[in-house]
Amino acid sequence: xxxxxxxATVGVASAALALGATACGGKSSSDAxxxxxxxxxxxxxxxxxxxxxxxxxAAYAGLEKAKADLGVQTSEAEPSEGEGDPDKVQRLTxxxxxxxxxxxxxxxxxxxxxxxxxxxxxxxxxxxxxDTSKTGKNIANLVFNEEQGSYLAGVAAxxxxxxxxxxxxxxxxxxxxxxxxxxxxxxxxxxxxxxxVKVQYLTQPxxxxxxxxxxLGKAAAEGQLDAGADVxxxxxGLAGSGAIEATSKAKKWSIGVDSDQYxxxxxxxxxxxxxxxxxxxxxxxxxxxxxxxxxxxxxxxxIRYGLDKDGVxxxxxxxxxxxxxxxxxxxxxxxxxxxxxxxxxxxxx
Length: 349
Description:
Shape: globular
Strand order of the largest sheet: 2-1-3-4-5-11
Helix content: 40-55%
Order of helices and strands: HEHEHEHEEHEHEHEHEEHEEHH
Largest sheet: 6 strands, parallel
Structural class: alpha/beta
Number of strands: 12
Strand content: 15-25%
Number of helices: 11
């Protein structure tokens, strides 16, 4: 109910602003822009919405930081179940008409909509997270080397497994999520070629429910646990919380994704068994884009975050993990070798 309410609030408010501008002879969509004395920024969430303890929540953290540190007014818009590109186009249009600058689409699913909307608002910067397929003068493509962070997770998993069987759960089988799989599997095999990696995807496009349904993640993890896995890495958004729950109840290790899931309040009951998390600095990418617009020097084009800039990494919040000095040493060496170019991590299995 919370998500539906937020969609309605943003939609109604934006529609009213748009109608008011038209009636008063105000700005058309082609010259809409944020008021420099009253900066506003907005994010449109990916599948699963805010509260996923992962990808969307990382974006929200960046928006909140901009609100606190930069004095920017903020707006949020949630996705609806089973929506299509026209819904995303409408959402982004409403946010831009309301004077938000930048307007940030959280996730590759926003690529077609941003490609359609951005040319209509040339003075508004659009942020597109996790996608470089759609570009433009006022589009900032915020992307990450997920495979590098996942490689480190594979090193850790191979070092801690006792059964020599580990699992990877992908939310939806897309090229982006296969980057997570590829890096993880390579890290495992480079560390111990005898460790078996079980791979399962929850859904196939165009069904993106694998990012939003914890029950699917839970069932997949239970199946991998039954097959002998004692470490499971999930790249599945909100669905990954179900995998973490199942793995924790079995007293086996889970590896989180995007946010440091050991520190997520919604997962506190399972944190003892969250070994580590592959982090993506989505928060800073959102904050940096908002700041660039506020400073009058808006980012555009590809802005890439990798291990070399701590744009991806492996969290060390769990004290149990930091005590595993042989594991942390192996991870540190792998990180240094990737940054130095001694290890090239695959982006596809």
